[in-house]
């Protein structure tokens, strides 16, 4: 794109095409670069760069540039989509590893079938206090938190969940909970 380009200090071993990242940053800044040296650092568990005083996640920049979507989500509650890492590796910001998903689809991908702990349910309840939600919306939230009335998972969805968790070690606590859950379901069926 440009002869200017950036030189990067990749402090977090982010997997990214540095030339593409440089082009994306110049594109987003409209050609205003103010210096050619940049660091790639970790921010909220994701690789990020600073551009014109604003911190951007590397995977957001790569996706926006390759799809020519010059819109950066801003403000709490305004996000309608996320940029998901297909292989689950947050450091992998390569073009083929990033896909745009709606917030609902992304949440379903990672959380469907996982019971919501009481502590999390209380935080959600607290965050929704004072908001005016329709009765239908309240029922959906309640059902989701209590594990009720969920559609059965499709084979494709099960495959995506499996891939997103591939390579993650299962803690002894999780194994114990899975075993208890299995025993409860088995006893229910008898």
List keywords for this structure.
6 strands, 190 residues, 16% strand, alpha+beta, four-stranded mixed sheet, two-stranded antiparallel sheet
Give me the secondary-structure topology.
Elements: E1 7-10, H1 18-28, E2 37-43, E3 46-51, E4 54-57, H2 58-66, E5 81-85, E6 98-102, H3 103-111, H4 118-128, H5 135-146, H6 155-164, H7 172-189
Parallel strand pairs: 1-2
Antiparallel strand pairs: 2-3, 3-4, 5-6
Structure commentary:
Mean pLDDT is 79; it is low at 73-77. The chain is elongated. The protein has helices spanning 18-28, 58-66, 103-111, 118-128, 135-146, 155-164, 172-189; strands spanning 7-10, 37-43, 46-51, 54-57, 81-85, 98-102. Helix 1 (18-28) packs across helix 2. It is an alpha+beta fold and 190 residues long. It has seven helices and six strands. It has a four-stranded mixed sheet with strand order 1-2-3-4. A two-stranded antiparallel sheet has the order 5-6.
Mean pLDDT: 79
Strand order of the largest sheet: 1-2-3-4
C-alpha-based Rg, rounded = 21 Å
C-alpha geometry: elongated
Unreliable runs = 73-77
Into which percent range does the helicity of residues fall?
40-55%
The share of residues in extended strands comes to: 15-25%
Number of separate helices? 7
Largest sheet composition: 4 strands, mixed
Query: Could you tell me how far the N terminus lies from the C terminus, measured between alpha carbons in angstroms?
Result: 66 Å
Give the structural class: alpha+beta
Number of strands: 6
Name the helix and strand elements from N-terminus to C-terminus, one letter apiece: EHEEEHEEHHHHH
């Amino acid at each position: 794109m440009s002869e200017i380009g950036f030189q990067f200090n990749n402090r977090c071993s982010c997997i990214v095409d540095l030339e593409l990242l440089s082009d994306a940053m110049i594109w987003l800044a409209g050609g205003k670069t103010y210096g050619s040296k940049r660091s790639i650092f970790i921010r909220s568990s994701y690789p990020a760069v600073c551009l014109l005083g604003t911190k951007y996640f590397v995977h957001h920049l790569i996706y926006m540039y390759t799809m020519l979507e010059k819109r950066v989500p801003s403000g709490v509650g305004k996000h309608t989509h996320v940029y998901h890492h297909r292989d689950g590796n947050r450091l992998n910001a390569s073009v083929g590893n990033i896909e745009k998903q709606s917030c609902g689809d992304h949440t379903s991908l990672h959380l469907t079938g996982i019971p919501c702990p009481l502590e999390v349910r209380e935080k959600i309840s607290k965050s929704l206090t004072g908001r005016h939600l329709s009765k239908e919306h309240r029922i959906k939230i309640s059902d989701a938190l209590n594990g009720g009335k969920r559609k059965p998972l499709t084979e494709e969805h099960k495959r995506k969940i499996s891939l997103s968790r591939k390579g993650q070690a299962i803690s002894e606590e999780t194994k114990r909970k899975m075993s208890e859950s299995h025993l409860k379901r088995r006893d229910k069926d008898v």
